[in-house]
Amino acid sequence: MFSTLRTLFDGANARADERLRDTYAVELIDQRIREAETNLAAAKTTLASLIQRQRAEQRLAEGLDRRIADVTERATEALKAKKSELAEEAAQAIADMENERTIRGETLSRLDTRVIQLRTSVETAHRRIVDLKQGAITARAIRREQAMQSRLDKTVRSSSAADEAETLIRRVVDQDDPFEQSQILRDIDRGLKGEGVATKLEDAGFGSATRSTAENVLDRLKKDL
């Protein structure tokens, strides 16, 4: 039972974490890009230090090469002059410098390798950050579209409510006019009672007139002239 509850609790936490990530996805992307840029800046600083050491070692190695060449030339001249003690001392100095040159050469080789590796890593990280920034632009555009779609959905829902209101208005407006209906009923009743037939006969000129007509009014006006 406790194991089941724990599983359900973990699942609920995971879903809540996913919803939180979805809500703040753009902000999280920007934060991760800033962290990547910080790491890239540190890697660039390290690369600059390695290149500086590489150049320093190269200058020292070149200096040793010049000193070895100079002392070798002088030792050769000492040997020609039968100055064996000076030649032996020069030979020892040359040997020491050659050993130092070997060590510095190995150090320089290691630095060259590290510089190449780190430079490659920096270039890769830089390209990845550029891609991430492009992705962030796309993500923000999609998020704006989603917000616009959400507002549009609300508008559609409100339009549905407006449509329902218009339908109700039409139902009220299209209902039969009770006053007109009453007039029609009165006409029907008069017809049933014979009043309608009498009116028709009167209009045809049969019987005495019960209503004033335009013809009667004109006749009366002519008599007054």
Question: How many strand segments?
Answer: 0
In the residues, how many domains can be counted?
2
CATH architecture of the largest domain: Orthogonal Bundle
**Fraction in helix:** over 70%
- Total of DSSP H or I helical runs spanning 4+ residues: 6
Morphology = rod-shaped
Q: How many angstroms does the end-to-end distance come to?
A: 116 Å
How do the SSEs run, as a string of H and E?
A: HHHHHH
Strand residues, percent: under 5%
Name the CATH class of the largest domain: Mainly Alpha
**Sheet with the most strands, sense and barrel status:** none
The radius of gyration over CA amounts to: 54 Å
Mean pLDDT: 76
- Low-pLDDT residue intervals, each spanning 5 or more residues: none
The chain-level structural class is: mainly alpha
At CATH level 3, the topology of the largest domain is Helix Hairpins
Keywords:
about 90% helix, about 220 residues, Helix Hairpins, rod-shaped, mainly alpha
Question: Can you characterise this structure?
Answer:
The chain is mainly alpha-helical and 225 residues long. The chain folds into two domains: 172 residues, Orthogonal Bundle (Helix Hairpins); 46 residues, no CATH class. 90% of the residues lie in helices and 0% in strands. The chain has six helices and no strands. α2 packs antiparallel against α3. The longest helix has 90 residues. It starts with a helix and ends with a helix. The model has no long low-confidence stretch (mean pLDDT 76).
